[in-house]
Amino acid sequence: MTAADIIINNASALPAYILLSSLLEGIIFQDNRGLLFFIVLCVNFIINILLKTLLWELPGSHRPNENATCGDKYGNPSSHAQFIWCFAIFWILYITQSNIFLNPVANILSSVSLILIAIIVSLSRVSQGCHTVLQVFFGAMAGIIVAIIAFFACKKLLMAK
Predict the structure, then answer these.
(1) For residue 80, what pLDDT band results from cuts at 50, 70 and 90?
(2) How far is residue 32's CA from residue 25's CA, in Å, rounded to a whole number?
(3) Is the predicted pLDDT of residue 145 greater than 90, yes or no?
(4) Any idea which of 32-46, 65-79, 87-101 has the lowest mean pLDDT?
(5) What do you get for the CA distance between the two ends of the chain, in Å?
(6) What pTM was computed for the model?
(7) Got the DSSP string for 18-85?
């Protein structure tokens, strides 16, 4: 087993760690942004459930390997892909809009790192037989759309205070 195999096989757990860390950040540090981001991720999850419910009868909505330990039998859109792309795009927007790093190279490296993490998690879902490429693509697109809408809604909400 190569290092790449180990990374891809364990990447599926990353969304759970991200969700927990955003909740803990909000509670421990009493940071509204952490709690707001946790709410965004929960709304993203609810949207994924709604999409799976609406799309379950369409061809290609079932998992490619029904024997894989991937959850229920409906795989379209991929919830892991939707979650990780929502996370990545939301934080890329935050990093670039808030100039959190004074060095533009740090902004670029952070953004590229987030995209690479999203790609690794997405590829892990296909390589584990949990999703088709199309299911992961739809999940990624849904996550990107949710992230963009949520980011600008949160920005407006935080600026109102």
Answers:
(1) confident
(2) 9
(3) yes
(4) 65-79
(5) 52
(6) 0.77
(7) HHHHHHHHHHHS--HHHHHHHHHHHHHHHHHHHHHHHHTTSTT-B-S-TTSSSSSSB-SS-HHHHHHH
The single-letter code of the amino acid at 130 is: C
- Whether residue 55 contacts residue 76, with contact meaning beta carbons closer than 8 Å, is answered with yes
Q: Tell me the C-alpha distance between 15 and 11, whole Å.
A: 8
Q: How far apart are CA 45 and CA 79, in angstroms?
A: 7
The greatest distance separating any two alpha carbons of the chain, rounded to the nearest whole angstrom, comes to 52
Listed by start position, the domains of the chain span 10-159
Interval 42-64 mean pLDDT? 76
Positive or negative CA dihedral for 23, 27, 32, 33? Answer: negative
Q: So what's the pLDDT on residue 30?
A: 63
